Amino acid sequence: MVRVISVEMERFPIAGTFTISRGSKTEAEVITVTITDKGRSGRGECVPYKRYGETMEGVRAAIEAMRDPIIAGIDRTALLAAMPAGAARNAIDCALWDLEAKLTGTPVAVTIGAVAARPLETAYTLSLAEPEAMAAQARANATRPLLKVKIGGDNDMARIRAVTEAAPESRIILDANEGWTHENVEANLAFAAQHGIAVVEQPLPAGKDDILRRIAHPVPVCADESVHAAKDLEALVGLYDAVNIKLDKSGGLTEALKLRNRARDLGFGIMVGCMVGTSLAMAPAVLLAQDADFVDLDGPLLLARDREPGLVYRGSLVSPPDRMLWG
């Protein structure tokens, strides 16, 4: 039987509106790749991201351009050399992992050394809004142990104060999405420290963050937009304290594993995060995140509907994927 690949563009409505410093969205736009071989099928999902110049049509075209190598049996190692990091490679890579598991009967968790995979405590994301509205979001989720708070505007101190007062028992990740400036970053970090923030994610624009070498980090600072693949890490030593690994940035689980291991070697803390996608996109990341310091895999919790079967969430605990879903 010849390998077959299918590519599908799908949309899943978000429950309400998801807002960060760069804008708002009301649906998750995803691309699903299915690779079938010997009667078994493997799936992978990616989320094209405009911040990195990706569009649904462009990512689909990049996947379609790999049709012949995929049908010919390209493996994950060769895929790393054949495609750049990004959403398109992620969907193919994760589909190949899933297909391999289906063909061999060996779960991905076993292959990557996550045999005793366990439920993980994930952050739950609060959208950027005015302080009073963010306080209401925090109050409604104050029983969750870890909140990720989107900031990155002119009134962030008021937002920080409002959220920490509304959810005093929750640990809080602040995600500025590159929204701070050289003029306010020191004061904002100091204010975050005063309010017990656990970590601040990507305060400054990627490539314009060298000031982080010269200022105090009273709260650990985590790179997101500044890191995609393992090759990026050396330049971040002394700049950031942790890195956020996302499969859509790294271009799949294969590179993400390399990135995680190299980051540990260099002394970085690890966050495993996501774009807003379905359980199919989160499934490989849950296995990757088994030893992470912070887990931010709440994408399906933000959707009005998810795939069936999906990941099992109990409060803020997300369980490893059933093999019917992935892996």
Automatic annotation (TrEMBL):
<dbReference type="InterPro" id="IPR029017">
    <property type="entry name" value="Enolase-like_N"/>
</dbReference>
<feature type="active site" description="Proton acceptor; specific for (R)-substrate epimerization">
    <location>
        <position position="150"/>
    </location>
</feature>
<feature type="active site" description="Proton acceptor; specific for (S)-substrate epimerization">
    <location>
        <position position="246"/>
    </location>
</feature>
<keyword id="KW-1133">Transmembrane helix</keyword>
<feature type="binding site">
    <location>
        <position position="175"/>
    </location>
    <ligand>
        <name>Mg(2+)</name>
    </ligand>
</feature>
<protein>
    <recommendedName>
        <fullName>Dipeptide epimerase</fullName>
        <ecNumber>5.1.1.-</ecNumber>
    </recommendedName>
</protein>
<feature type="domain" description="Mandelate racemase/muconate lactonizing enzyme C-terminal">
    <location>
        <begin position="131"/>
        <end position="222"/>
    </location>
</feature>
<keyword id="KW-0472">Membrane</keyword>
<keyword id="KW-0460">Magnesium</keyword>
<keyword id="KW-0812">Transmembrane</keyword>
<dbReference type="InterPro" id="IPR029065">
    <property type="entry name" value="Enolase_C-like"/>
</dbReference>
<dbReference type="Pfam" id="PF13378">
    <property type="entry name" value="MR_MLE_C"/>
</dbReference>
<dbReference type="InterPro" id="IPR034603">
    <property type="entry name" value="Dipeptide_epimerase"/>
</dbReference>
<dbReference type="InterPro" id="IPR013342">
    <property type="entry name" value="Mandelate_racemase_C"/>
</dbReference>
<dbReference type="GO" id="GO:0046872">
    <property type="term" value="F:metal ion binding"/>
</dbReference>
<dbReference type="Pfam" id="PF02746">
    <property type="entry name" value="MR_MLE_N"/>
</dbReference>
<dbReference type="GO" id="GO:0016855">
    <property type="term" value="F:racemase and epimerase activity, acting on amino acids and derivatives"/>
</dbReference>
<comment type="similarity">
    <text>Belongs to the mandelate racemase/muconate lactonizing enzyme family.</text>
</comment>
<keyword id="KW-0479">Metal-binding</keyword>
<feature type="transmembrane region" description="Helical">
    <location>
        <begin position="266"/>
        <end position="289"/>
    </location>
</feature>
<dbReference type="InterPro" id="IPR013341">
    <property type="entry name" value="Mandelate_racemase_N_dom"/>
</dbReference>
<keyword id="KW-0413">Isomerase</keyword>
<dbReference type="InterPro" id="IPR034593">
    <property type="entry name" value="DgoD-like"/>
</dbReference>
<feature type="binding site">
    <location>
        <position position="224"/>
    </location>
    <ligand>
        <name>Mg(2+)</name>
    </ligand>
</feature>
<dbReference type="InterPro" id="IPR036849">
    <property type="entry name" value="Enolase-like_C_sf"/>
</dbReference>
<feature type="binding site">
    <location>
        <position position="201"/>
    </location>
    <ligand>
        <name>Mg(2+)</name>
    </ligand>
</feature>
